[in-house]
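Duplicate of #3305? Posting structure anyway:
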């Protein structure tokens, strides 16, 4: 799509939203689609992310909100239900061999792409090959799934995936919220640089929604139901993602149908007022703000005592109180979230302790040598920590600076735009960095790409310079352990190692809180493992109109 087309699409969306907002005919749960007499088909509006999501195709989308947009257009073999468990979607069923290495998927009947072309097993095979060994691999699509050996299509409705080794996380890896989006071979077979592919054909998938118009500069999107969808047309016939200055205020004004404060403070007066008018939905936090250390930068970042001292110097409970009014927790030190079923119950809390912090700094000879209240290097020169952070997280960085100054560590905040911050994180271009991200309830195998010494991940969530052979072994062992009890023991050990070494610490995890108009729509619900989904973003719920649909619906 050219810039001119995007501008025209944006203009069309503005006119459509203006008309919709000025009319009372197309907003209520009583709206009836004339093509299906008597069937209730609602139209909903949601607040757009404040950060750019990139172009809405799987290889160009940015961060979680951008990837979420693509799930409405493109399908995976399975898709999570309200528990976060992958359930039948594009594939109506599957079986696994006794050794767990051969998976056979049977596709649904009458599946078509939005351009009317049939979707067959050949498109599925093409997608996997494109991602594993083709152009998609260069774009990073195959991170974490190199254990897949071959994909075959013995007939138009059957796909057989052979693994090199058993993998408990396999279904989540390929069919979780951000699994392998199945691409139309007749379009993508000629695309050699997927990240740059744009235009009308780039947004043709098989999903329950078609993208009618959009504007990536404002994160505005207008989705309409795919009337030829193989599981039947969606109960939500249209939904619009609209830019608003404040999502909660927009909800109060009736401009959107559900909203949350994101990961920011919701003033108590506003919380109480909204709770009287709307249903409140809560869930354990999926998102966190984390502090990264880069041992490759040498002393003192390569010293465990320094990293532990920094964490003891941070008043993370105070951070939760000041930033989110106590609605959250200091992040667990093992890099999994509070709602993760694998979260260890025996991790050290690292409660604020200035005396412990000071003793650890003294241990590595970081001392105040000129009585100015700030610690100096062993050679007597001043020590200052460059702290890389995105401009959206400067308030949190200021608190880090405040806490560490109280234990003698001087911090120099270097705030940049989000893309530059992400690029620095991906390249390891930092001594210490603050980054925000979600997915804390994901499968523990996700920690392999983030923390193992041989990781080739290009994500900003990768921790650079961390090298613990025991962690590498345990992380890889748990990834192939099929006995759940044994796997949990291994995952507990992974978390214990990270909590001791502290290559990264989750500063805080805010609770998930949303206010919804459940009189208008019953499908609002959180999906574990999908932080950008919020309560509005799971396409399974939008399609069925129900937070707890039957399998395959």
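Output from current build:
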């Amino acid at each position: 799509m050219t810039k001119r087309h995007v501008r025209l699409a944006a203009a069309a969306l503005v006119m459509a939203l203006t008309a919709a907002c000025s009319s009372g005919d197309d907003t209520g749960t009583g709206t009836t689609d004339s093509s299906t007499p008597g069937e209730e088909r609602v139209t909903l509006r949601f607040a757009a992310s404040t950060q750019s999501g990139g172009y809405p195709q799987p290889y160009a989308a940015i961060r979680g909100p951008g990837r979420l947009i693509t799930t409405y257009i493109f399908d995976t073999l399975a898709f999570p239900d309200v528990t976060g468990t992958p359930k039948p979607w594009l594939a109506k069923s599957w079986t696994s061999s006794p050794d767990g290495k051969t998976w056979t998927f049977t596709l649904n009947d009458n599946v078509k792409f939005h351009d009317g072309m049939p979707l067959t097993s050949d498109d599925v095979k093409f997608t996997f090959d494109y991602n594993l060994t083709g152009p998609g691999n260069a774009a990073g699509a195959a991170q974490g799934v190199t254990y897949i050996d071959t994909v075959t299509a013995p007939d138009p409705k059957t796909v057989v995936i052979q693994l090199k080794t058993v993998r408990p996380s396999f279904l989540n890896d390929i069919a979780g919220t951000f699994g392998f989006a199945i691409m139309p071979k007749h379009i993508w077979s000629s695309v050699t640089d997927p990240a740059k592919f744009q235009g009308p054909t780039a947004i043709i998938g098989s999903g329950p929604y078609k993208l009618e118009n959009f504007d990536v500069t404002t994160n505005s999107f207008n989705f309409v139901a795919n009337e030829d969808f193989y599981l039947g047309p969606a109960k939500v016939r249209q939904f619009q993602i609209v830019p608003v200055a404040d999502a909660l205020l927009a909800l109060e004004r009736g401009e959107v149908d559900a909203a949350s404060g994101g990961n920011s403070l919701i003033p108590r007066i506003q919380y109480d007022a909204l709770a009287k008018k709307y249903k409140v939905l809560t869930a354990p936090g999926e998102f966190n703000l984390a502090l990264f250390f880069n041992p490759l930068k040498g002393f003192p970042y390569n010293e465990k005592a320094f990293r532990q001292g920094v964490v003891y110097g941070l008043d993370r409970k105070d951070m939760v109180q000041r930033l989110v009014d106590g609605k959250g927790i200091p992040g667990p030190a093992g890099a999994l979230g509070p709602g993760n079923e694998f979260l260890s119950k025996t991790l050290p809390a690292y409660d604020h302790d200035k005396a412990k912090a000071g003793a650890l700094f003294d241990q590595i000879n970081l001392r105040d040598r000129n009585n100015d209240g700030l610690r100096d290097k062993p050679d007597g020169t001043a020590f200052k920590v460059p702290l890389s952070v995105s401009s959206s997280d400067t308030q949190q960085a200021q608190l880090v600076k405040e806490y560490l100054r109280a234990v003698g560590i001087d911090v120099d905040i270097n705030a940049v735009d989000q893309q530059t911050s992400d690029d620095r994180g991906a390249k390891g271009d930092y001594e210490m960095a603050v980054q925000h991200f979600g997915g804390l309830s994901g499968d523990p195998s996700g920690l392999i790409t983030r923390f193992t010494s041989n990781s080739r991940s290009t994500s900003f969530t990768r921790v650079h310079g961390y090298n613990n052979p025991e962690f590498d072994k345990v992380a890889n062992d748990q990834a192939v352990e099929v006995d759940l009890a044994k796997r949990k023991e291994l995952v507990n050990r992974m978390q214990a190692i990270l909590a001791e070494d502290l290559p990264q610490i989750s500063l805080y995890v805010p609770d998930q809180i949303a206010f919804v108009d459940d009189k208008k729509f019953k499908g609002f619900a959180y999906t574990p493992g999908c932080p950008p989904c919020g309560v509005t973003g799971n396409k399974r719920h939008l399609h069925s109109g129900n937070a707890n649909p039957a399998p395959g619906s």
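Confirmed duplicate; merging threads. The first strand starts at residue 42 and ends at 47. The chain is about 30% helix and 20% strand.
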